[in-house]
């Protein structure tokens, strides 16, 4: 029996039954903490306690604390909106980028236009397919690499999927400078790899690096051809700085992905905490 053959009024029961039977959840988001590695192009994360326990007391002896945070929307694990990039002054939908951002927020292509997502996720563990624990600095993941990974895993990528590309660079996350990789370069897909992803009609693509794509040594984010192909040309949102090591170590290449970002009106991106869900046992 497939979901399609189950009466529509009972499909919710099937989902609840699957959850009740037991699921394992992989957290693909990085903790937000002061000093975490990030692109130097965005405001950093900051957290403080403006009100602490003991600053004041209520009549019954209770005290309360609160928080203040500030951060750019492209810091930590985050998702890029289509309005994040423009080419020759135009957004993905052809809108004039300058006009679309008038008033302090985008009127088109902003992250609030992206609905929450629950769908099929595929992890492409490229280092495992190539027989290495992690890719070398500045290594460009090619269509041939992606084909080899799909063949090894038996996980074809299709329309509507969320494809997550592991480079192994996430192992460096606790070393800020190494993970940013300005001096060494960072592995990732290049323009050809991005076109391979786009040709499969995916909804969202993600990776375990800050920039998603391959960065040459010493160049930083000077050129981002994969962003142009995926965001500007094909309207495919990008998730960056993902935690993919646990998923790869468990050999989980196919899963249900739950993705809900902050619904920030007019923003070019948002923090996000993706979850990969599989049947336990």
TrEMBL record:
InterPro entries: KFase/CYL, KFase_sf. Pfam families: Cyclase. This is Cyclase family protein. It comes from Micromonospora cathayae. The lineage of its organism: Bacteria, Bacillati, Actinomycetota, Actinomycetes, Micromonosporales.
């Amino acid at each position: 029996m497939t979901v399609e053959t189950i009466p529509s009024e009972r499909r919710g029961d099937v989902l609840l039954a699957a959850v009740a039977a037991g699921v394992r959840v992989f957290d693909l988001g990085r903790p937000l903490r002061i000093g975490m590695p990030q692109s130097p192009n965005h405001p950093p994360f900051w957290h403080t306690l403006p009100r602490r326990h003991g600053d004041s007391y209520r009549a019954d002896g209770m005290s309360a604390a609160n928080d203040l945070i500030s951060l750019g929307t492209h810091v930590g694990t985050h998702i890029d909106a289509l309005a994040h990039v423009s080419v020759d002054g135009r957004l993905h939908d052809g809108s004039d980028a300058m006009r679309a951002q008038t008033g302090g927020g985008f009127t088109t292509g902003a992250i609030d236009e992206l609905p929450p997502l629950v769908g099929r996720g595929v992890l492409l563990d490229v280092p495992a397919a190539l027989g290495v624990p992690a890719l070398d600095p500045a290594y460009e993941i090619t269509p041939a690499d992606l084909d080899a990974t799909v063949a090894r895993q038996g996980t074809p990528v299709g329309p509507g999927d969320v494809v997550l590309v592991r480079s192994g660079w996430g192992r460096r996350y606790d070393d800020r400078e190494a993970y940013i990789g300005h001096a060494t370069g960072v592995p990732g897909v290049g323009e050809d790899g991005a076109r391979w992803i786009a040709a499969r009609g995916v909804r969202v693509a993600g990776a375990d690096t800050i920039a998603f794509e391959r960065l040459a040594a010493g160049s930083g984010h000077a050129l981002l051809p994969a962003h142009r192909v995926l965001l500007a040309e094909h309207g495919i949102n990008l998730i960056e700085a993902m935690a993919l090591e646990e998923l790869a170590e468990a050999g989980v290449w196919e899963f249900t992905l739950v993705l809900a970002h902050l619904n920030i009106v007019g923003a070019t991106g948002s923090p996000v905490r993706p979850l990969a869900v599989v049947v336990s046992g």
